[in-house]
Amino acid sequence: EAGVTQFPSHSVIEKGQTVTLRCDPISGHDNLYWYRRVMGKEIKFLLHFVKESKQDESGMPNNRFLAERTGGTYSTLKVQPAELEDSGVYFCASSPYRERGTQYFGPGTRLLVL
Amino acid sequence: SQQGEEDPQALSIQEGENATMNCSYKTSINNLQWYRQNSGRGLVHLILIRSNEREKHSGRLRVTLDTSKKSSSLLITASRAADTASYFCATASNQAGTALIFGKGTTLSVSS
Asked: Is A28 part of the contact surface with chain B (CB cutoff 8 Å)?
């Protein structure tokens, strides 16, 4: 079974540009989560989808971040316009709807905003 | 707000030794999980312990949970060079699909 995949693995952009990150969860997992780790800080929750619906987006830092999960399969996280402080590693995780607890993480996308 | 706090921040040991990492948290939890991250890689789930459990084993891993002290420990026995990684504890406040709250992690270095 394929794990959670994320694309791209790395992205280097300039301040003010737009970047779109993609996450493909494990097939059949209804729960999809986005997290990020800014340099030197802890991994922080951004938002949670159940299928195509946003269940919890309390961790989204501001309106420059837009997440979608059309059709309840893969998800995208767009940052527009990117700022220097957005640099970090963005992780995606998924879990089956009925499974309590364990989340399966992707390898992350390393974003550097110059 | 930060939930998990790992201790120590960094740990260096020799192969064959045991490594113990501690995690403290602030609010009530449904479960606590430990994850490992190898350099440049994603997070790998190691073990989950529920709030009504006190100890759990998985291979060379032993996790304890003390809800009265709001703390957990991860013991890796007979460590190997391949155990070199960052280890994070993460807490979940309820049993439904929910946000995990991570600590800053412990960086473990195992030398041969």
From this structure: no
Structure tokens of B85? 């990684």
How much is the pLDDT for B94?
63
Parallel, antiparallel, or unpaired for β B106-111 and B10-14?
A: parallel
A-chain CB neighbours of B23 within 8 Å are none
Longest dimension (CA), chain A: 41
CA of B43: how far to CAs of A15, A90, B108, in Å?
A: 28, 11, 15
Query: Tens of pLDDT along B60-105?
Result: 999 999 999 999 999 999 999 999 999 999 998 765 557 898 988 9
- Read off the pLDDT of residues A11-34 as tens digits, 9 standing for 90 and up: 999 999 999 999 999 999 999 999
What is the distance between the alpha carbons of residues B60 and A70, in angstroms, rounded to a whole number? 41
User: Are A43 and B102 in contact (CB < 8 Å)?
Assistant: yes
- Strand, coil or helix: what is B103? coil
Q: Which residue does chain B place closest to A100, by CA atoms?
A: B95
